[in-house]
Design goal:
heterodimer; A: 112 residues; seven-stranded mixed sheet; four-stranded antiparallel sheet; 11 strands; globular; B: 113 residues; mainly beta
Chain lengths: 112, 113
């Protein structure tokens, strides 16, 4: 199993541009999450999904959108990028309630 | 609002010494998790603590949970350089059906030779 994979690894965006961060897991996990980690800080939840077709907002959803059309994929869309969205983005998944979350390698995003 | 606080935020220690990282949380919790993050890398699961009094050990790391005090500790025994990393605790709030974790701010551990 590849686990949780994310693309791209690194991206530079100009203010106002849009992009999609890809996340795929091959463990048939129901729950998937998007976090952001600002320098020297912990993780904050952006959006999560409890299954295909079901998504909901986390702590810091403004400026982002998600979709979950399949169990495997959970893309995160940034519309109108802003410097405040400069961060490292982690995708995670878990099979069931209370189980350990498995994290992808992260996407480093710089908005200039 | 649920808060998860770790201390210290930064810990510089010498090889061979012992130390403890503390994780306090502000509400009842079903489970507590410890993760390790190496610089520029992703998060790796270390421990899941399921109940009051739970203790888990892996190598030089031992984690414990006191749900009455809303406190978890991560004890490092005879530190070695390879343990240098940032350690996060994360709490699953009681009754959290959506499995959303609340992370602490992390403890950056630097083990000096």
């Amino acid at each position: 199993n590849a686990g949780v994979t994310q693309t791209p690894k690194f991206r530079i965006l100009k203010i106002g541009q849009s992009m999609t961060l890809q996340c795929t897991q091959d463990m048939n996990h129901n729950y998937m999450y998007w976090y952001r980690q600002d320098p020297g800080m912990g993780l904050k939840l952006i959006y999560y999904s409890v299954g295909a077709g079901i998504t909901d907002k986390g702590e810091v959803p403004n400026g982002y959108n998600v979709s979950r059309s399949t169990t495997e994929d959970f893309p995160l869309r940034l519309e109108l990028a802003a410097p405040s969205q400069t961060s490292v983005y982690f995708c995670a998944s878990t099979q069931g309630w209370g189980e350990t979350q498995y994290f992808g390698p992260g996407t480093r995003l710089l908005v200039l | 609002e649920l808060k998860v606080e770790q201390n210290p935020l930064f810990l510089s220690m010498q090889e061979g010494k012992n130390y403890t990282i503390y994780c306090n949380y502000s509400t009842t919790s079903d489970r507590l998790y410890w993760y390790r993050q190496d610089p520029g890398k992703s998060l790796e699961s270390l421990f899941v603590l399921l109940s009051n009094g739970a203790v888990k050990q892996e190598g030089r790391l031992m984690a414990s949970l006191d749900t009455k005090a809303r406190l978890s500790t991560l004890h490092i025994t005879a530190a070695v350089h390879d343990l240098s990393a940032t350690y996060f605790c994360a709490v699953l709030p009681y009754g959290g059906a959506t499995n959303k974790l609340i992370f602490g701010t992390g403890t950056l551990l630097a083990v000096q030779p």
